[in-house]
User: Fold these one by one.
Assistant:
Number 1:
Amino acid sequence: MKPFFAFLSLVLLLVCCKEVERDSSSYDTVALSLPDKKMYKEKSDYGQEVNAVASEVVEEVVDAATPPVNSIEKIDQKIIKTGNLRFETSDMEETFVELQHLIKKHKAIVQNDSEEKTNNTVNRYLTLRIPNQNFDSFITELSSGVHYFDLKNISVDDVTEEYIDVASRIKTKKALEERYLELLKKANKVSEMLEIERELASIREEIEAKEGRLKYIQNSVSMSTINVEFYKVMERKVGASVSFGTKFVNALKSGFNGISTFFLWVIEVWPFIIILVALIFYIRKRFKKKNSNKNVDKG
């Protein structure tokens, strides 16, 4: 029995050694995955130090990617509001003056102002950027002076989740960038420096893109957009009857214009007219000469 237990103990010892080796190799794989496993394969003191720093980067990246619940609760709700309004008015200038008063009162900004005339309407379009806290009061005061809206559309978009996600990603990338800068200071080989700088350039590009998106969200949240269109229907005028005297004068003017056009055309083509008259005169002269010769022969 003793040999059997000795053999069983040996088997268990080998299995445990394999598990420990497997765990160690998996840890090395994670540690070497940032930024490049080939760069840190060397068993030198520098390679060991890089592995230690890389493993710290992994832990910090995981922590930064999952912000605490308390920090999420402190972030205010991010709401983007947009309004589209269209209505008819009887006085374009008066309506515009009232709008200017509301714009000044609620600290709005006119981003675009355009006017259009059609066959029977005059339209004016305004695009306003207004502080988010004044959005509802502006809509309420404007609606109090309008009897009927052809279009009234208010949309609200909650971008809190996207804001938290983008901010968290920026924090993660910046933490990773700082660690790469530390590795760059400790690098001794040109190949290592080039590899780290290439990774740094990629990370910096991602950070700038995320920061741009975050600024856009913040701007859209702080300043809401309101599109206002108001128009006036123009009355169709019935054409007045034209008297005989007016028709006679118009006919004289038309005839004079026709004669003037004809004389101008004659002046323009006068060389051709002279050539044509000379040709006709020459042909008639030749014809008369032939007739006179025939009469002489008969006599």
Number 2:
Amino acid sequence: MAYIGSLDQGTSSTRFMIFDGDGKVVGQHQLEHRQILPHAGWVEHDAAEIWDRTKEVIAGALKQADILGSDLAAIGITNQRETTVAWDVTTGRPLHNAIVWQDTRTAEYLSTFSPEISKAITHKSGLPIAPYFAGSKMHWLIENSAEVKSAIASGTARFGTVDSWLLWNLSGGVQGGVHCTDVTNASRTLLMNLETLQWDDELLGYFGIPRTVLPEIKSSSEIYATTDPHGPLGSAVPIAGILGDQHAAMVGQVCFERGESKTTYGTGNFALLNTGTEIVRSKNGLLSTVCYKFGDKPAMYALEGSVAVTGSAIQWLRDQLGIISNAAETEALASSVTDTAGVYFVPAFSGLFAPYWRTDARGVIVGLTRAATKAHLARAALEAICYQTRDVMDAMVADSGVPMTEMRVDGGITANSLCMQMQADIMGIDITRPLITETTALGAAYAAGLAVGFWKNTDELKKQWKQSRRWSATTSVEDRASGYAGWKKAIERTLNWA
């Protein structure tokens, strides 16, 4: 058993990666799933489709690595956070499409909460009141799905984030699947007390969620169950790590010390700052969240800034506008012009997250002239990714009081060298990318490996981190200030539209 498996279930795709003891990838397979958009602001996934994709990618990765499931010492799970699944334990079928983290259908419901209740929820959970989080999605399912109501009445309903759905299926499903989650995913529901690390009766009451449907909360690194020998791995393999995707990336980037930070570029963009064992209450629109918890060691906390649309803005250029045929074309197209010709693009397709938290905001493109081309728009889309990141990191510095001199980055867009150079230029700091850029999957593998002794401790993991590329700022302070001032004006247009 010389390998660790990592199931990385994301917003647009699912993949299984297999790592050796040096953290190197020896096999992987990835498949996309559908994005279901029933109404404006609604985003859903078919959880049954995600489970089918999971089985396929596990088989594909094992085949590529030319190993058996029994060659794995353990597997870890990392997942798109906040996305909410309800299923029936007697049939094993979802009771409704999963409601995705980007979905804003519960905004009106949340607006009915009094300031006093909102303040109480934020203090206990560390989260602002927003449809982004799972609690209001669960409430919506209870209020609007006859199937969910019926299953709750009969005692067969189970709710969870995607990690819980996958763990339940991998560990046997209707034949006795285990229903639990880890502290990082639970901390994204508005239902967990950040201090006790357990479901909070007062929070459950605000959203009308029965405790009986929820998973047991455990640490991010321990043996939760073994895989069903009749399942896709064909063997009883310990499932020993669970981390929400951004927390997994922190572990994959070995950000184990207070003050260390990373930014992950995926469908959205997420920056985390390790605050150690201290819960730091943000004054600048950031989230207080659990960073990770390894076994019975104390939980480590983090400040987080979330941007809803980064990589999905590039998907929009491809799928809705048709100005590129694949994401890789964006760099060449954007590089064909030297600037955006004054164009700014704020992709607030599902509102604005940190540090604004305006669910009613909508996307805008400003500064258009007849001279503007698709190349300028492509470049503005890349700049939008970088400006949104600066918004978050400026808030992080303000909250922590720690000046930032470099930022570790990972995720798909880090392959775009132009975008990373823009990021360095817009922020005025060094940007550094690790040798293994898909650190989300690696972090889940690390958590699982630590639980079964595959790796001894975090010091061993730190030695594996290696830099592959560094970008340094080339712009002047004046140019950075001027460009950022234009971005802030574009943000004003977005908010005024609302």
